[in-house]
Predict the structure.
Amino acid sequence: MADYAEMYKVLFRVVTEAIEMLQQAQQATEEIYVSDDGPVIAMLPPNNDVKNKDAACSPKTAPHLTKL
């Protein structure tokens, strides 16, 4: 007959190790996230060229607007 107590102990030990591995992975990734400086944000200069702005919105350059 199978030794159910031994089977339970083996299973419990392996599950416990798996949980500990997942916790360590979570802690490692949290540390990476916390130590990151974040994204680099750069401000672009404004585009005040009115001719280009009008050309970009014309129906000739935007075929999806000709159906309106």
